[in-house]
């Protein structure tokens, strides 16, 4: 019995010893956490949207505008405006929407950037020789650094002094005529601008005009009209006042009824409003005197032809273009 107790006591001691011993355990990994000074992604303010383009070549839609009216006012084809702005529906334009109304290659700033880049003397201050600071600039203008004879220590002599004076004269002489290049470049650009303007003027003057209909003039440009009103009879022939291409034929511009617009040059177009019938299609080339419509009173109280000439989209006095009668 005593042996059994000793055996049990020994087992208990062994069990307690096993529980008390600690096995070789690896220490728990320590992760060093650093506080980030950056703001959470959701708290960072979103970058402001790029401002809508504005200025020449762009138009902001106003209440009551239609794409056809905008095209007439800027002297462009409405189909071109649709293409330049990737519009899927020409009738779906919104107030305050900005539209490009000039070809992309004529975007404002393009020509100016090219002119500035081409001017070699822009922004440079030209000083005469002998002025303060000109001596320091002379080595740079010469294009090379002087390495001798000042790089060597020589004994004073008349020969060494003569050699020191020779290199100074050459860079200064070469640098003197350089500033003359800038005025020449500027003069060349000054000549180019009048040439472009004169080309447009020649194109406009090359259009031969005639009256678009027979009848009494009942409204004039000086009387507050955007063109002239010519009274007539329903079905009377409306003729193209000059040769060109039909830019618009339809009734989508309020106040003009059935309207035909002909483009004569890049700057000039003519408009024929209130017709009862249109006889031409968009994109069709017409000759001077060709019948393009029949006079009527669509969107008007009386039978008449409202005729406009527009230069770069702005109404001008037709009497300055039409021959006297």
In short:
With 325 residues, this protein is α+β, with helices and mostly antiparallel strands.
Spans of 5+ residues with little confidence (pLDDT < 50)? Answer: 107-124, 134-144, 168-176, 181-193
Alpha carbon gyration radius: 42 Å
Helix content: 25-40%
- The percent range for strand residues is 15-25%
Can you summarize the main beta sheet?
10 strands, antiparallel
What sequence of helices (H) and strands (E) makes up the elements? HEHHEHHHHEEEEEEEEEE
The first-to-last residue Cα distance is 151 Å
Question: Outline, from the CA principal axes?
Answer: flat
Question: How many helices in DSSP terms?
Answer: 7
Count every beta strand, where a strand is a DSSP E run of 2 or more residues.
12
Label the structural class. Answer: alpha+beta
pLDDT averaged residue by residue:
74
Structure notes:
The chain is built from 7 helices and 12 strands. It is of the alpha+beta class. Strand 6 (244-250) and strand 7 form a beta hairpin. Helix 5 packs across helix 6. The longest helix has 25 residues, at 181-205.
Features:
325 residues, ten-stranded antiparallel β-sheet, two-stranded antiparallel sheet, 29% helix
Strand and helix layout:
Blueprint: H1 2-20, E1 58-60, H2 67-74, H3 78-84, E2 98-100, H4 110-118, H5 134-142, H6 158-175, H7 181-205, E3 217-219, E4 228-231, E5 237-239, E6 244-250, E7 258-263, E8 268-278, E9 285-286, E10 291-295, E11 304-311, E12 314-316
Antiparallel strand pairs: 1-2, 3-4, 4-11, 5-10, 6-7, 6-9, 7-8, 8-10, 8-11, 11-12
